[in-house]
Amino acid sequence: MANPTLEMLHGMLYGKGLRFGKPGGLARIIASMTGDHADVIPFMGPQIHDHVMTVAKVPARLYYWNAELLVDAHLAVDRWYGFDSDTIVADAYNFEVEALGARMIYSDNAMPTVDVSDPLIKEASDLDKIGSLDVSKGRIPMGLEVGQLFLKKAPGPFAGGFFCSHWSLICQAMGYPKAVRAIKRDKGFATALFDWANDRVLFPYMQAFAKAGVKNANGADAWSAFPDLTPELVGEWVVPYVKRLGEQCKQELKMTASAGGAAGDYCEEDPAKFDKEIMFKCWKMASNTFSLKLAFSAMGRTQDWDMTWLRDFAIQEGKGGHRLPVLAALNGRFMRDSQPDEIVAKLREWINILGRDGRMLVFIGNVPADTPSMNIHTAVKATHMLGKYPIAADLSAVKIDPPAVQPFDEWLKGQPEADIIFKAREWKPGNKKVFA
Question: What is the block-wise mean pLDDT of the chain (436 residues), using blocks of 10 residues?
């Protein structure tokens, strides 16, 4: 296992022009974020939990309750694809509300989901009835264990825990329509909701992470993407509580809690409505939730974006003669529904626009369960080949042959995660002997 501190140092030096050795995945990312560029454009590990479960062919009712299986399956699938980093996360939006008593829907082949027909919060008085998070309830102990195992098995700056950020937590607890009505028409109730989410739910969870030795946690907040929330509402409600939780955790727990993940992500579905001015406002707002400033895309319909806009934003917001690093995300549905040659063509287009001057990273906004594995292998190979520095003058001349991929089950044999994954396939509800 590579030493993450040495990899980060290698990346910083490589990005500053001291280009020695072959950077590992973490070094590539650090070089692209803090310097000019690495040897190739890095492909960061995406949110991929449902797809990992599908590739590993393990049962949902075990995978979403067994921390070791979830972590090991992620690490194996990430390595099979050749990502330059790992992102290990489960159904991050459900842990807190489940532990607080929300009615859930469980499935044999998909992640747990909140039953929106019977919301946890129906009126203001419910906040007192629900009370504070009990970190021994539901799958919160599993969430803590995932953070511990991530740090142990894949240490580095991206390793840690996960949680559901304030606004998405409120939406999970009461439904988006009532939640958005509160922030627009009943600011007293909305403030009480955010205070409850921060002080009585998330901070106790962060205290449990800190006690477990997990000093870094990231909060997902997809409900705060545009157009669910305007940039103005993100600035009024989301950003202040992102900062509040971050400061509380830094001062009281000596840990990093990064809430607001995907806040301001531009997810307009109709290309005819794409608006450069609103995009810039969204990206500006999103940059307020990161410790390192980025030109950020994630879940949006990026295959239809004019990527010169994202490049222009990165240049406008840059400092010291350097533009912001650009995180270019392949849309999850685009990855699932496209042919490999369409994915290669899109990466050619993007790298030509965004990659020539360095500071470009690629990932996938979210990987649907049924995404063809060949599409992901193709995207990683194409990014590393088309994104090899110096970037070819004519990217159309760089031929990307279909990757030669060993089937996952054949590749898995002999890997350290093989035993737990193969055993998990034998598991049936009530059959605890498999993992005894």
Answer: 90 95 95 95 97 98 97 98 96 97 94 94 92 97 98 94 98 97 96 97 98 97 96 96 97 96 95 97 83 86 97 93 94 98 98 96 96 98 98 97 96 97 92 70
Q: What is the dihedral of CA 195, 201, 202, 206, to 10 degrees?
A: 130
Strand partners, 104: 114
With DSSP H G I counted as helix, E B as strand and the rest as coil, what are the percentages for the chain, rounded to 5?
50, 10, 40
Judging by DSSP bridges, how do beta strands 216-220 and 161-164 pair with one another? parallel
**Cα–Cα distance between 65 and 58 in angstroms, integer?**
12
Q: In this structure, are residues 31 and 19 in contact, taking their beta carbons and an 8 Å threshold?
A: no
E-assigned strand segments in 202-264: 216-220, 256-261
Dihedral sign for Cα 248, 251, 255, 256, please. positive
Please state the pTM of the whole predicted model: 0.95
> For the chain, what are the domain ranges?
1-12+27-44+293-405, 89-291
Length of the chain: 436
The DSSP code sequence of 83-148 is -SS-----STTSHHHHHHT--EE--SSS--EE-TTS-S-SSTTHHHHH-S--TTSTTHHHHHHHHH
The CA distance from 45 to 329, in Å, is: 11
76's tokens: 């194996």
Dmax (CA) for the chain in angstroms is: 65
Q: Are 283 and 328 in contact (CB under 8 A)?
A: no
Pairing of strands 104-105, 113-114: antiparallel
- Distance (Å, whole) CA 371 – CA 51: 7
User: Domain 89-291 adopts which CATH fold?
Assistant: TIM Barrel (3.20.20)
Contact 66, 419 (CB under 8 A): no
